[in-house]
From TrEMBL:
Gene3D superfamilies noted in UniProt: Isopropylmalate Dehydrogenase
Sites annotated Critical for catalysis: 139, 210
Pfam families per record: Iso_dh
Domain Isopropylmalate dehydrogenase-like, residue spans: 9-394
Protein's name according to its UniProt entry: Isocitrate dehydrogenase [NADP]
Binding note for cofactor: Binds 1 Mg(2+) or Mn(2+) ion per subunit.
GO MF terms, alphabetically ordered: isocitrate dehydrogenase (NADP+) activity; magnesium ion binding; NAD binding
Keyword list, A-Z: Magnesium, Manganese, Metal-binding, NADP, Oxidoreductase, Tricarboxylic acid cycle
Binding site residues for Mn(2+): 250, 273
InterPro entries found in the cross-reference section: IsoCit/isopropylmalate_DH_CS, Isocitrate_DH_NADP, IsoPropMal-DH-like_dom
Residues reported in the UniProt entry to bind D-threo-isocitrate: 77, 94-100, 109, 132
PROSITE patterns in UniProt: IDH_IMDH
Similarity annotation: Belongs to the isocitrate and isopropylmalate dehydrogenases family.
């Protein structure tokens, strides 16, 4: 077969440990034989990031902005143990944090569904895409433990020197207080990321907050979402046949639990922290969860939700063929290739990505899978494969 041609390149961000090992196997077995793969390669392995004082991470972020599409392997976020293990010059910040800040982006997580893995919520027939606002609120808070009775006040001093002062509480005894904030800019970007990605996927957006109680703070979230939607997205949503739906957060939770899925759930920072873990665990396995970083102006970086699977890597170094699940990493590649094909007008690339996804799901649905999902498959797995066997089983179906 003639290899499928690509018009433009994808930013390729290599990573660490077991996922780096699988990265190469996926490329060699499932991509390079079929596609004349064009990528701009960035080695985001920990040592390379450290050697370049993180310049390579910033260069990779720049490439995603320029090419509009990137695919990323899981990477180590360094801590003291890693500094010693890899003999690093310094503690490097999280590469995902750097790229997210450079792109001003939001992360959307989405489970991959197969018919023989049943989530714990039986009415969910389609994936729920969860978007979490990753700035501010309680994650950038300021707290005081008040030792005595006293007056708690909220004070804002504007750049013009004008003061706004309100009493939180005349406290009759010792207690606790907390100050939190958010920024209109950040909320606007978050809203744009949600609407941009939902439009891309042709799914409706649900957003919930507690504006009946928090009339100013949560009310501001609600108002900004509505304004951004009306001014910039309403016409496009109408044309795509999808909608934006706002409801109170507790009502949103109740509706999500009895829905059949197939929409985006946009959440404030704390709600997203809690609810993304609920959705991930209800869907079975972290290894069956993809993640995409979307910038408000429409750049996309695809990756797996899980980390570098460190424990498996140490077993691999001792010579073991581990049964590490490559599905989320394969779907990161198919997501990026399909997006590239869509932007470039090369339908054969989009079609290839779809077929690779189909071959992957078919392999599992026929009973051949890695150990992590074999544990929860129903009907039971026919054969538990190591990663290399599993990838070649996908290739034979592809
Ligand atoms: P992890 O890599 O997600 O793995 C935690 C455990 O989950 C594994 O030990 C394994 O359980 C299971 N698991 C995860 N992915 C799997 C897969 N594909 N196939 C089979 N089992 C899988 O988290 P971690 O070990 O806590 O973190 C390792 C490194 O990853 C850390 O340095 C962290 O900084 C980094 N990390 C990176 C990202 C990212 O780049 N996006 C995200 C999270 C963490 P069993 O051992 O029970 O088989
Ligand atoms: Mg959480």
């Amino acid at each position: 077969m003639a290899k499928i041609q690509m018009k433009n390149a994808i930013a390729e961000l290599d990573g660490d440990e077991m996922t780096r090992v699988l990265w190469k196997v996926i490329k060699d077995e499932l991509l390079l034989p079929y596609i004349d793969l064009k990528t701009e390669y960035f080695d985001l392995g920990l040592k390379s990031r450290d050697d370049s004082d993180d310049k390579i991470t910033y260069a990779a972020a720049e490439a995603i902005k320029r090419l509009h599409v990137g695919v990323k392997c899981a990477t180590i976020t360094s801590n003291q143990a890693r500094v010693e293990e890899y003999k690093l010059k310094q503690l490097t910040p999280s590469p995902n944090g750097i790229i997210r800040a450079e792109l001003d982006g939001t992360v959307f997580r989405e489970p991959i569904f197969v018919s023989n893995i049943h989530g714990t919520v039986s009415c969910w027939k389609k994936p729920i895409v969860l978007g979490r606002h990753a700035y501010g609120d309680v994650y950038k808070n300021c707290e005081i433990k008040c030792p005595t009775a006293g007056k708690a006040e909220l004070v804002f001093t504007g750049v013009d020197g004008k003061e706004i002062r309100k009493t939180i509480m005349d406290m009759k005894g010792p207690g606790i207080i907390q100050g939190i904030h958010n920024l209109d800019n950040s909320i606007e970007s978050f809203a744009r990321c949600c609407f941009t990605y939902a439009l891309d996927r042709k799914i409706s957006v649900w957003f919930g907050a507690k504006d009946t109680i928090s009339k100013t703070y949560d009310g501001n979230f609600k108002a900004i979402f509505q304004r951004v939607f009306d001014e910039e997205y309403k016409a496009k949503f109408d044309a795509a046949g999808i909608e934006y739906f706002y409801t109170l957060i507790d009502d949103a939770v109740a509706r999500v639990m009895r829905s059949e899925g197939g929409f985006m759930w946009a959440t404030k920072n704390y709600d997203g922290d809690v609810m993304s873990d609920m959705i991930a665990s209800a869907c079975g396995s972290l290894a069956m969860m993809t993640s995409v970083l979307v910038s408000p102006d429409g750049n996309f970086e695809y990756e797996a939700s899980h980390g570098t699977v460190q424990k498996h890597y140490y077993r691999y170094l001792k010579g073991e063929k581990t049964s590490t699940n490559p599905v989320a990493t394969i779907f990161a590649w198919t997501g990026a290739l399909a997006k590239r094909g869509e932007l470039d007008g090369t339908p054969e690339l989009v079609e290839f990505a779809k077929r690779l996804e189909k071959a992957t799901l078919q392999t599992i649905e026929e009973g051949y899978m890695t150990g992590d999902i074999a544990r929860i498959a129903e009907p039971a797995a026919k054969e538990v494969l190591d990663s290399w066997q599993f990838i070649s089983a996908i290739r034979s179906r592809l």
